[in-house]
Design goal:
heteropentamer; A alpha/beta (about 300); B mainly alpha (about 280); C alpha/beta (about 300); D mainly alpha (about 280); A: about 300 residues; alpha/beta; 5-stranded mixed beta sheet; 13 helices; globular; B: about 280 residues; mainly alpha; MetI-like fold; 2 domains; 11 helices; about 0% strand; binds adenosine-5'-triphosphate; binds magnesium ion
């Protein structure tokens, strides 16, 4: 694939690189982006990327819409929400996905070691910490509770940043917490017990996040978008195939303890967005009241 | 050295009534003129705004009614926020004035505490939230504490300054007349520091509102700040703008309340100041 | 040196106050501070103005200085009606502490008006030095006003006025707040400056001794609303000294005369029906005991009560 | 975001005797006491986690924080962050001060303008700057511009209000003096208005400096603009508790330094002012 | 009424100052303000203390009031050594503006010490009314101090002291900052209160006329470091009035006597070698011209220079 960069369009000019800004949260999920940058996969496509830290999905959407980023990383629920508010954003390629294997995923619901809660169904009516209300974590947690036969209607959600969750669970300030890596591992190291792998259980092989851009960028800079997608896909593939390098690259942009980094479960970085999972998610959002009208995800997927 | 006072009742001029009406009109114009003009400008400029994040003012105002007045939000969100704000603010007043009087009264205590206080004050409150959560969980207690942790500094430090500046002659007067204990604390120390304390209150109030919002970014499930952030996250931009508007309005109303309180509590001070400014020459 | 205000050399009056009236109009009160003042001051005169507290002395002076617009009547200085602060006039205020700029040294304070006059630097420095020397402060140009005693500060204000080389110098109770000794020194200073520089001086005071000691003429104002009650020519010798002059028989006579007028002034103003107004005022209004309350003055003799 | 010590405008403390050496006391002794206070604070922080009162996983003892701090000091990335924060702080402060001075002087010297803007200022001032975060992100994204917007907004009011007070506080006698010597408008502004307002302005700057720093860090924390706040965020989301606390300590120390600097500036510029000179003459 | 300080009825001295010495120790200097003062005051006496500026009058008074601990020696009041402000003592400070609580009305100011004394409300109100009436301020109880003139404020301070019903009343140059007329009124007020209430009064002033007019005895202090130079018994009739008394021959004699002592005081202190110290001070420290600088006083006559 290295030589195939010759189908360059005039946009590049005299061999100049396209400078592209990508907004991303400094978490494990975006390891391929950093890895791809380090490996020179973007440069191969005549793209020079600058990764700009964001603090969450809505900032990323805002940044993309205001033109501050060309592309950004965000979870699909945020994208669907934005779309339902008529914000013209569209996914470019996959961001990350659940491993699809309950028992070995990069996030789940943990409880204190001596908790009476044994499984997802036991979470019904409990106080659960999540990072963002009305987003992917609570939607999938609800789904997995329902799948386990529990009642998901009267759960008390508590918004809490992921870093605070292990402490909150261990000190029993909440009954359970939906955490992702590295805090998933940290919590388990401290003795917390996993009762649900909601990403894996709710929807099979669920796509969690995507790299996205505005419709305008996608249509007007089709070539650039294409090259970005190519480089990104290569990076995803490489990261999926070289987990150790992915773990190493974490040290360049996060502060995760190397000992922890070695133990964490990495998310899946598949080649394609699982369209079906996204549609299921969108439907769940309607039934959970996150959005008012049914969304056809074809509108936001590439 | 004679004291002049300008409060001199004189004959009313015949045109007084006309003058009063004109003055009231002018006052109204002065108070409302610019705000109305600015709103009008905003209205016109945003009238056919295509920018997603800057909806037309007309739309925002229309939504305001729906979002805040015709829903349960006033009770479910605004009220809890205000309650937490007032709890935090109230505690900050008690703590700030109490500690301030203590620290201000004793030079050694002040020297001992000052660097630590300066240090703690300089730590941005949002950074402290995780620490506070360790100790206070994340219920209302935590949020009240967040508000408190920010509000207490302006009050504390202003009180310290005010207490330090208590007039020596007054202090001696109290000693001579055997005014001690609680009477001294109230009639001399607190009263004499009260102008500074109120300055502190005013600063603390604006900090408090900000922290009310910030505290609701963590572990909240209701509140004005929480709503605004939810609106923002779910891209309900018009609703978000109504929240900002409401926040500004609340801030303004609370500031007015405080001003009224100040006017009552410190009328002696404004009188004194005015006297000194106008014609007290000593 | 005569009571008419026309200076003997026939140059005509330098300052002409004509039917001056000033009414302060506030929100819902209006005070007629000055009812009708007419007098003139010849070039080179030293005229003292006395009157009870609240008589409107300050008001008069501020009108002359162009800081206050008269309600009616006019102030004519050197042939032109005063509209704003006229050039060539300097004012020394009672509140020396507040009329010096605390952020400037003595030197800078004195120099500032000269800069505004666009004098060359050398000339400015010369003027500053001379005037500071004249008031006996030649050695402290680098000090800040607040590093000086009250008397010294007042002398700086005087030096500033002198350096400005005014044709006419207005002083509003300039020595009211300095102690007796300093005050005597400053009085002598004013007279010697006046004699040396030939400047016209209007000196407002409520101290009768001071007025008689200093002036060529003493204008006695009635209490508010104010009119001129008397214009006493002071025929003391030009060379005066604190001890000799003040203990002379003529001084005592003049003082008694002025005192009599001031006594009269307290009970007589432009508006006879206004007379008792001062007593019935509620708390918070002009206090009744600022030194001229009618209730305690009748029984005092000129020789005693007039001196501080 | 206004947690700040406020000695109300120095000149506003008129009733306070100027020459008090009140509390300055022996300098050396005070500094020693202060150090002792700080040491006590650190000792408490060391003991509390060690005693098991809170888990050292969440509140590490001082020694571990110190270790992390030492490590940080060796990292280029840390210094970049400090530089970023300071740049945002300084630029924001500079803009706010410049704006505040210009607007303050214009409003302060033209009574009509002042009258007609008063209500608007009162309305805008209490609007918490966090409410502007969405707007900032929209306009400038998560970069310096956003930080600047928030910093400038918060700091501007501090400066403006102080300047307004200051300009109004011109002594009537001094003003009359200026008039009678025929000083021109410019000279009056330069030599009368400016020095009168300067103590107020410096108080405003001191307040604004503290607020600006807090806001710069908060903005970085919430918006994700580069700087210390963002580093804290990074440490937090990476579970690096020690570095997080080390960074928090750095922000506190920065705040102390900024305050000290501002006080020093005040002392240097206002050598003539009673509040400063009072400390020298016994 | 005698110079020994033992009151004629043999009740023994109310106040005994024994070998009082006070050294101020500052950062890197120490000032011996009072070297050795011994005197006593009988119950019901009215003793005036005069001395040049900086003599240590305020220091003495603050030691007596228990506000300052003497370096050595002691102050004995009613048989007990003074440790802190003794009950039954009231002090009127010079700084009237600063000794009243600006946030309290006149009424509240006067009432506060009575509340502290736990008097019943009715009695308090009665005392407040009576004392305000006594100082002629019966009509302004609801005013704030800053709404009053300086003289009125000082009268409020006096009323507060009177209402407190002290055995002994200390006053530190209480009238230094009020104008001549008000001052005369307040002097008469003090004498009439003293006569009516039988309180013991120690009155500090630097005005010789005032001391002679007011006191039964005048204590003359030397300049710093301070000793008692003279103790003059004032044998004027008990009924005094501003005009008659001040113009009497005996008054002039006594004034001359005290003045002579004060003149001597300026050049003589507990430490003769200290004499020239006052002149060599830099600008910014105690100003050199506060009315008693040695350089200008020699050539003035007692009758003139001594009066304020
Ligand atoms: N700005 C003002 N507004 C209203 N009334 C005023 C004002 N200034 C002075 N007056 C009134 O005008 C009258 C004259 O005041 P003015 O200050 O001229 O008297 P004065 O002779 O200078 O008194 P003093 O000897 O006390 O200085 C007084 O009754 C005073 O109350
Ligand atoms: N707190 C102090 N610290 C050091 N020296 C002091 C202090 N207070 C007074 N002194 C010095 O003690 C001496 C006596 O001062 P004091 O105030 O008692 O004089 P005084 O007789 O009351 O003077 P005045 O008539 O000016 O009020 C002076 O030399 C003064 O400088
Ligand atoms: Mg006047
Ligand atoms: Mg004294």
């Amino acid at each position: 694939a290295c030589g195939s960069s010759s189908d360059d369009t005039p946009s590049g000019g005299s061999g100049g690189l396209d400078k592209v800004k990508v907004g991303a949260i400094p978490i494990i999920d975006v390891a391929p982006l950093h890895l791809g940058k380090a490996k020179g996969f973007f440069r191969e496509q005549n793209i020079e990327i600058e990764v700009i830290n964001t603090t969450g999905g809505s900032v990323a959407v805002t940044g993309v819409v205001s033109g501050q980023f060309d592309f950004a990383f965000g979870n699909v629920v945020s994208l669907i929400q934005a779309h339902s508010q008529n914000i013209p954003v569209k996914a470019v390629t996959v961001g990350n996905a659940s491993t699809g294997k309950p028992g070995e995923d990069f996030g789940g619901v943990v409880v204190p070691p001596d908790s009476p809660i044994k499984d997802a169904a036991g979470l019904a009516g409990k106080n659960i910490a999540i990072n963002n209300l009305n987003n992917i974590t609570d939607t999938t947690t609800r789904a997995s509770i329902r799948k386990a036969g529990g009642d998901a209607s009267n759960i008390k959600w508590t918004e809490l940043p992921f870093p605070e969750m292990p402490a909150a669970v261990m000190s029993k300030r909440v009954d359970a917490a939906m955490v992702v890596e590295p805090f998933f591992t940290i919590a388990q190291n401290q003795g917390a017990r996993v009762v649900a792998y909601n990403f894996a259980e709710a929807i099979p092989n669920m796509t969690v996040a995507a790299y996205f851009a505005t419709e305008q960028t996608i249509s007007q800079k089709a070539d650039l978008t294409g090259r970005f997608k190519t480089a990104m896909d290569k990076s995803l593939k490489y990261a999926q195939e070289h987990p150790d390098e992915a773990r190493q690259v974490l040290q360049t942009y996060t502060k995760i303890d190397p000992a922890v980094a070695a133990k964490i479960v990495l998310p899946a970085w598949p080649a394609e967005i699982n369209r079906e999972s996204v549609q299921t998610l969108a439907d769940l959002m309607v039934s959970d009241g996150l959005i008012k009208e049914k969304v056809d995800v074809a509108d936001i997927l590439p | 050295m004679s004291a002049h006072s300008t409060v001199r009742p004189g004959r009313r001029s015949p045109g007084a009534a006309v003058g009063t009406v004109a003055r009231v009109l002018r006052w109204i114009a002065a108070v409302l003129g610019l705000p109305v003009a600015l709103l009008a400008l905003w209205w016109v400029l945003s009238a056919d705004s295509e920018t997603f994040y800057l909806p037309p003012l007309a739309e925002i105002l229309a939504a305001f009614d729906d979002v805040w007045l015709r829903s349960d939000r006033l009770r479910a969100d605004v009220l809890p926020s205000l309650l937490r704000l007032s709890a935090g603010f109230g505690l900050a007043v008690v703590l700030g004035v109490g500690l301030g009087v203590l620290i201000g009264s004793f030079r050694r205590v002040r020297a001992f505490c000052e660097p630590v206080l300066e240090f703690l004050r300089a730590v941005p409150p949002p950074v402290l939230v995780p620490v506070l959560m360790l100790f206070a969980g994340f219920g209302n207690t935590m949020k009240v504490l967040v508000v408190l942790s920010g509000c207490v500094w302006p009050i504390l430090l202003n009180t310290v300054e005010g207490v330090r500046a208590v007039d020596e002659v007054l202090t001696d007067t109290c000693r001579c007349y055997g005014i001690r204990g609680p009477a001294r604390l109230w009639h001399l120390v607190v009263r004499s520091a009260s102008p500074q304390i109120v300055t502190g209150l005013r600063q603390a109030l604006s900090v408090g509102i900000i922290l009310m919002v910030i505290s609701e970014m963590f572990a909240a499930n209701n509140g004005l700040g929480f709503s605004i952030i939810q609106f923002q996250r779910t891209f309900a931009v018009t609703n978000m703008w109504t929240g900002i508007l409401l926040l500004g309005l609340l801030g303004f109303l609370l500031a007015v309340l405080l001003r009224l309180f100040e006017r009552r509590a410190l009328h002696w001070y404004s009188g004194l100041r005015q006297f000194q400014r106008n014609d007290g020459h000593r | 040196m005569n009571a008419t205000g026309i200076s003997p050399d026939g140059a005509g009056p330098l300052l002409d106050v004509r039917a001056l009236r000033k009414v302060y109009t506030g929100r819902n009160r209006s005070v007629e501070a000055v009812r009708d003042l007419t007098f003139s001051v010849g070039a080179g005169d030293l005229v003292c103005v006395v009157g009870p507290s609240g008589a409107g002395k300050t008001t008069l002076l501020r009108c002359i200085a162009g800081l206050l617009a008269p309600t009616s009547g006019e102030v004519v200085l050197e042939g032109a009606a005063v509209q704003g602060p006229p050039p060539g006039m300097a004012v020394v205020f009672q509140e020396y502490g507040r009329s010096l700029f605390p952020w400037m040294t003595v030197q800078q304070n004195v120099e500032l008006p000269l800069k505004q006059k666009k004098l060359p630097r050398a000339r400015r420095l010369e003027l500053v030095r001379n005037s500071l020397d004249a008031v006996g402060l030649g050695d402290v140009p680098a000090a800040y006003p607040w590093q000086l005693s009250g008397g010294m500060q007042q002398r700086v204000a005087l030096a500033r006025a002198v350096a400005y080389e005014p044709h006419i110098l207005l002083m509003d109770e300039p020595f009211a707040a300095v102690d007796a000794q300093t005050r005597a020194d400053l009085e002598d200073l004013v007279r010697s400056l006046w004699q040396r520089l030939g400047v016209t001086i209007l000196f407002v005071t409520h101290d009768i001794d001071e007025a008689v000691y200093l002036g060529q003429r003493v204008l006695v104002l009635s209490s508010s609303p104010t009119v001129v009650l008397d214009d006493v020519a002071i025929d003391l010798p030009a060379e005066r000294d604190q001890l000799g002059t003040r203990s002379s028989a003529r001084f005592a006579e003049l003082r008694a005369q002025v005192f009599g007028q001031v006594q009269r002034a307290k009970h007589q103003s432009g508006a006879p029906d206004h007379q008792s107004g001062a007593q019935g005022q509620p708390a918070g209004s002009r206090p009744a005991d600022t030194g001229t309350g009618p209730e305690t003055t009748e029984d005092r003799q000129p020789t005693d009560a007039g001196s501080r | 975001m206004t947690p700040a010590a406020t000695v109300p405008p120095p000149a506003a403390t008129a009733p306070v005797p100027a020459g008090r050496s009140g509390g300055t006391g022996p300098r050396g002794g005070n500094a020693l006491l202060g150090l002792l206070g700080f040491a006590t604070f650190l000792a408490v922080l060391e003991v509390v986690p060690r005693s098991g009162l809170v888990s050292a996983n969440y509140l590490p003892p001082t020694s571990r924080i110190a270790g992390a701090l030492a490590e940080l000091l060796g990292e280029g990335r840390f210094w970049t962050a400090v530089a970023d924060t300071l740049r945002g702080w300084f630029l924001g402060l500079a803009i706010a001060v410049a704006l505040g001075v210009v607007v303050g002087f214009v409003l302060g010297t033209v009574p009509v303008l002042r009258e007609f803007t008063a209500s608007t200022i009162e309305f805008l001032r209490p609007i918490p700057s966090v409410a502007l975060i969405p707007l900032a992100v929209l306009l400038f994204g998560s970069e310096l511009g956003s930080v600047l917007l928030l910093v400038v907004y918060a700091a501007f009011w501090q400066v403006l209000v102080q300047v307004l007070y200051g300009v109004r506080d011109v002594d009537p006698v001094a003003r009359d003096t200026a008039y009678t010597f025929g000083l021109s408008r410019w000279t009056r502004i330069r030599h009368l208005l400016w020095p009168t307002a300067l103590p107020y302005l410096l108080t405003g700057i001191r307040l604004a400096a503290a607020v600006a720093l807090i806001l710069a860090i908060t903005a970085e924390l919430i918006i994700g603009a580069p700087g210390l706040g963002n580093e804290i965020n990074r440490a937090q989301s990476g579970g690096a508790v020690d570095s997080m606390y080390a960074l928090i300590i750095v922000t506190g120390l920065l705040g102390v330094a900024v305050n000290g600097l501002a006080r020093r500036l005040e002392r240097a510029v206002l050598s003539w002012h009673p509040s400063v000179r009072g400390e020298e003459t016994p």
